[in-house]
Amino acid sequence: MTNRKIYTLSLLFLFIGLLSFKSNAQGPSPLKKYTISGKVLDDELNVPLEYATVAVQNTNDPSKVDGTVTNIDGEFEITVQEGTYTITVEFISYESKVFKNRNVNSDLDLGTILLGLGSENLDEVVVRAETTQVDVRLDKKIYNIGKDLTTAGGTVSDALNNVPSVTVDIDGGISLRGNENVKILINGKPSAMAGFGDTNVLNNLPADAIQRVEVITSPSARYDAEGTAGILNIILTQKETLGFNGSFTVNVGTPTNAGANANLNYRTEKFNLFTTTGVRYNESPGGGFFDTRYFENSSTDYSRIYEDRDIDRLSRNFNTNFGMEYFLNDQSSVTGTIFYRGGNDVDITTNNSDYFTSDAGLVLQTERRERQEEDDNSWQFALNYINNFDDKGHTLTADFQYEIDGETQATRITEDIFDNPGNIDFALIGENVNQIEDQTEILIQTDYVLPLGENSQFEAGYRGNFENEVTDYELFQEDVNSGSFILNETLTNEFDYTENVNALYTQYGSKFGQISFLLGLRLENTQLKGKIESELTDAQLEEAFGIPIDTDFDNNYLGLFPTVNLIYEVAEEENITLGYNRRINRPRGWFINPFPSRSSTNNVFQGNPNLSPAYSNAFDLGYLKRWEKLTLTSSIYYQHETDSFERIEDNVAGTNIVRTIPVNLSSNDRTGAELGLLYNPADWLRLNGSFNFFRFKTEGDYNGRSYDAENNSWFARFSSKVTLPAKIDWQTNAFYRGAAEGVQGTQEGILSLDLAFSKDIFKERATISLNVRDLLNSRKRDSYTLTDTYERDSEFQWRQGQNVTISMIYRFNQKKQRQNRRGGDEDFDEGEY
Fold this sequence. Notes:
By secondary structure, the chain is mostly beta strands. It contains 5 helices and 47 strands. The relative contact order is 0.11.
């Protein structure tokens, strides 16, 4: 009998027993009642087994079945009538223990019951520990990452790229179902670990720190309403084994990269100390080209500019997380953590530009060399209090986080002429750019959960996010006559940006028969404040940048965000889900800052302080079915977004500059469907595939031009894991994103292929892995852009060439994961499968 069947029958016996007990509670001559108790432990690790099942069956009347489960200390206690019973103690993946024909005529203490791992279940346990699995909740899908070989020695971004519905583009940007407006949380909260919204920071965190990823496409009212695509909640690994245990990981690779990471944990009955510390050294060559061809109606002096860009990146990072959980009593605990991330990066960008005219051809060749040095230091201090009033889910939690981040950039730019056959009068201007960014963020949150009866739950809470970012930007340009550097008053500025969000929420969930529901309502007030200090007046700023600029704005937005989540249990391994939610997309600071950031002489990005938040209404219908070796997940979804953000490119009048600026377009409709399969046909073969198709329709005008567009696109991924002779695991991951059409052009499809090999050594205390990312060197973005004044072909590759890494992890005082210990789930779990 499989573990799943044993577990299901245990729950069925428990349910039947409860009904039987209730129906016979009013018998004419009630018998005396006595208590059966005991404690269940792992026979090897000697740790408690929480949620082990205890079934008690009357031997004279087998239809009379009662039962219970063990608590966090492995203890159980059940009251039965006088009689003779067979007592069965079970835990998934462990051998059961049966006490037959025990005569209960007084209180019966079974003492300590030791359960060992079942030999017939050993292979299944390994499969569960090493493959990605999906669980469906009322408002989310939970992917237990398992042992993904292709991310060994990799980062959190690498791991996310293997999660169904999620894509990580070549710039490190994260999308959910093809939508970039996704909210990233760490352990359910915004965190400095996620880089204050800068997802590139996830490239510095080790992948093996992840326990699971929650893909929340229909977030409940508990979560922040930010993120029209939904939420990705990254849950980090936490050890629950008593004593001192941990692991060390080292990796080296090419292009030159190296790293080391330590995961340490010391747990007693009274407290738990834990730390994750790592260092990384990484070189990432990248680059691309921009081929811009100007029409006759453009104001530029050239007919074509071809720019070839090479980027050499050097990253040196250190991060550490240290914390302590102190158990005040059996019901409550306080946890304090300190997180630090430090980085020292050097980026050297070389732009070789060829200038052409329609009559003379190539007239000028230049080289622009930019060296940017960046120091980044982030701190996060967090306190968490949890009080479990009982073991039925009645809880109160309170959280406080304080985060600070300081980033200093120094950029030195030089420009030279390689060839000047057209004798062009081209000014070579050196530049020095100094930029300082200081960010602070405070989070205050409290949540209260109250079970109502057996199948209902009420929840309410408050969250306050208070964020401030100050950017001090100075640009000095070389005087061509004197050679000295002079302050550019037009571009030099200080931008003080504040975002305050206060939210109250409440939600109620219940279960009737086969239907579970979760209804919620969230009230959020958003305040976006910005103040710009500049040497120019408002009129001079508008003349310089071509858009009206409010140098002192204070915008408030009050909104209600309802959520509805339903789940219908067709059968034990089959369910249908339906979700609705309203979301908000707030413009971030760099989207609002109107002062341009330049990646080259000819290409700039400029924020828009006139941006308003975008709002969306989304519907999601899902279906899940499990067979013995196959799991199928599927969904169809629809989203309507108003005032959606779109990046618009235009040619700055009288210059060669192509400017990209975000604007509010009127609407964006997105319809899609996704299908996922997890198939384990044999112990030596495991397959995982997913397919996502979506269609979007954008309508809107900007500067008198229509940007209406309709497009279909899709992406698919496939993963296979094969166990070769000598117990060598071989994993292949393939990903393809189909071509897409935007409001101003098209983007070609992208293919990526990763390979990995792994073997356990030293009696499974260590694992050595070899992985190759982007085997075909095909992870490139090829785009075509068409405007009124020019057309452009471009290609960009964040990391050029194959990335080969060898890594080794050594574990001490650890076993492969053998328990599935529940607890700590944040949301209403009726309908958990």
